[in-house]
Amino acid sequence: MKHKVLSCFVRSFNSWALSLKNASSPHKAIHIFSKMHRKNVPFDSFCILFTLKSCTHFHNLPIIQNLHSHIIKLGFTFNVYISTSLLNAYVLLSFLDACLLFDEMPHRNVVTWNTMIMGYSKSGNDIRRAREVFEQMPCRDIVSWSSMIAGYNNVGNFEQGLLLFRQMMFHEEVKVDQVTAGLVLSACGKMGCVGLLAGKSVHGLMVKNRWELNVEIGDALVNMYAKCGNLRSGAQVFEMMSERDVKSWTALICGAAKHGFSEEALLVFEKMVVSGVKPNELTFTAVLSACARAGLDEEGRRYFKMIEENGMEPRIQHYACLVYLVGKAGNLEEAYDIIKAMRLEPNVVVLGSFLSACKEHRQFGMAERVIEQVLTMAKPENDRGIYNLVCDLYVMGDKLEEVERVRKLMLNTEHVRNARDSSFEQLVLKPHKDTIY
Hints:
Elements: H1 2-21, H2 26-38, H3 45-57, H4 61-74, H5 80-93, H6 95-104, H7 110-121, H8 127-136, H9 142-154, H10 158-171, H11 178-190, H12 193-208, H13 215-228, H14 231-240, H15 246-258, H16 262-275, H17 281-294, H18 297-309, H19 316-328, H20 332-341, H21 348-360, H22 364-367, H23 371-377, H24 384-396, H25 400-411, H26 414-417, H27 424-427
Helix pairs in contact: 1-2, 1-3, 2-3, 3-4, 3-5, 5-6, 5-7, 6-7, 7-8, 7-9, 8-9, 9-10, 9-11, 10-11, 11-12, 11-13, 12-13, 13-14, 13-15, 14-15, 15-16, 15-17, 16-17, 17-18, 17-19, 18-19, 19-20, 19-21, 20-21, 21-23, 21-24, 24-25
């Protein structure tokens, strides 16, 4: 009889737990949670964790705070797993609350510390404080190191990330995994030629450990070599891969386009299409930029049409390349018509590409149509090339007063004063908040 009662209780409890786990909304989860409380159904950590997971999934801060108060009343604040799950919710929804909770936690495990590192190291948060938390950890696992390296990557401090990786390799008993290696290779790629030596070292580590050259590792290596300009090594890794996805092909195409090998980039793209791999938006950005660099007007138009043929809408960077390659061919009026007919609102990147083409053909009159428009969009600290380009165009048009006006705007920002490059590559193909290249 006792066993039957216990069996019924377990089945009943499991049904409540399953309901919490499958709750379709945070309000539904809280409703079930409250109903269990009213019916005196005993709670355990699994029920609370299910509820937290459900509420976190829906990104509802008031519900999380309400649940937090229930957790305190039920006396589960000393449970490190529940507290860490709650901390993760606050990291996602309210980092200030996360900091307060972390300081009050009586017990912490390595996941707790890692959660705070990830919170601090997210773009827009405090990488210095993330490092302080990292250094305070009583013990670290591979996630700790990876999170810290990812944090440095987020803020563009790739050198510090590489130094940390070296420290992990030589001073800690932590085994490198694919995630960490991928983060380091990503940093190496963004450092260009400077990062190539470190990238080769990571590649050597992979070979030494006899890692399988799967898609993830292969993509990371091809991308690193391509961005660093070592296309031969990138192509060798690419050929060795037994399986390739769109990232593999696109990394090779981007690298070739970025370093001036336009014909090679287009050849790789054609092979990609023949192989049956469907290109993505970044693939077309690389292909169109290769056409723009090489002045391949007709080819560029054909590839631009292929974007819609592949079920995608042209993005800003696609229009920018099209405007430039049409303008570079001398068809400035047509390039201007493309801008006016765009489905998207033209931005600094598109208008900058048009101005760059106008400069090449010394057509100040055409450029004057959009100069004021682009100056209202440009920010000295972000769009230094635009200001240099506008100055060059005003000099071309003998508008010396306008040159002085724009230069005064430039002098307000130290970074702008020290920059001179206003080429198409800097204006259109540089990393920009509105591009994916």
